[in-house]
Amino acid sequence: MKLEHLAIVLVAFYLQCCVLGRDSSEELYSVESSSSEEELENEAVLEEDPHFDLLIFTQRWPITACYEWREKSASNVCGLPSPRNIWTIHGIWPTKLNTIGPSFCNKTAIFNVTELAPIEPQLEQFWTNVEKNKPYDSLWRHEWLKHGTCAAAVLTQLNSENKYFGQGLSWLQQHSMADVLNEGSVTPGANYTLANIHEVLTNRFQKNVAIECFYDRETKQQFINEIRVCFNKDLELADCDGILFEEVALNSPTLGKIISNCNVNKPIFYPATVPPSRFDKTHLSPFDLHRKFLDEYKSRKAKESRTMKLLVNIYKLIQLLKWTTI
Question: Which residues act catalytically here (predicted)?
């Protein structure tokens, strides 16, 4: 009876490991785009020291941002700027070197969208909330409470909502990635190497910037997503060396340091239109649907086979233990 109990424990342990392994692998590749309203309120209680070294001005390609958003849920809807061939602002992030933050530097701060009335039409176009399911001003609210409060605590040039968001619009006008990349012959609808994009950016800015990709687990393809340009506290261009990024910086023999989470050995796609998400079944041909069904069936049968083999081996072990104890 004790041996039978042992077998049950071993089987339960195996099944638990399978479930936990699956969940952890899914979490490994999940990408956080912005906090929910509830998370934002919880985080905002944690007031931090506002001092920082650099400001990271982040622009994103809304086509990729939309694709990433739609990949998370079948119910997610995108709001894209007009025209759609412009890069939009994600935020201005005060940053200490070799760490993340500071953030939420004033726990008593309140976001008042009416203060942005003079520049609201420009913000709607150039600081677009791609995540249309959420309140239209949720991105601005998040950026101000998390990042703007820290900038405002240190720099008089950014000590109000109007100044903070206005500075972002000013920087976009001067350093629009749509213009920068186009001048370097990097245009939507094609693949490029990380070295291609890095060279265009360093030639323009004469500073090291950060390049962020979105990796699609379904297609195993990487998309250009964000480009981050750094400024010092005098609001002058600065190298982004030393910022904490998702992956380690790569060193190119010809181009020097490349700060990026993109795979240097794979092409980077710069999409011209939003690709179909994994929830869009209509874009699959009958052949693709059949192949997907077969792949899922084979995967399921392989898992069942491995489980059965394990159970058989456990049974054999129990019989062997019984035999040796007779």
Answer: 90, 143, 147
Which residue among 142, 147, 175, 198 is the active-site one?
147
Write out 77-142 in H/E/C secondary structure.
CECCCCCCCCCEEEEEEEECCCCCCCCCCCCCCCCCHHHHHHHHHHHHHHCCCCECCCCCCHHHHH
User: Which residue type sits at 152?
Assistant: A
Any catalytic annotation for residue 51? Answer: no
DSSP letters, 15-33, are: HHHHHHHHHHHHHHH----
Return the structure tokens found at 9.
Answer: 């424990």
Task: Report the alpha-carbon distance of residue 188 to residue 3 in Å, rounded.
Answer: 64
Q: How many CA atoms lie within 13 A of 165 on its CB side?
A: 29
Catalytic residue among 90, 142, 175, 198: 90
Burial of 131 from C-beta contacts in 10 A (0-12 / 13-18 / 19+): buried
Mean pLDDT, consecutive 10-residue stretches, the chain (326 aa), reads: 47 44 35 41 57 97 95 91 92 95 94 97 96 94 97 97 98 97 97 95 95 92 97 97 72 75 94 87 52 72 86 84 76
- For the question of residue 147 being annotated catalytic, the response is yes
Q: Please indicate whether residue 90 is annotated as part of the active site.
A: yes
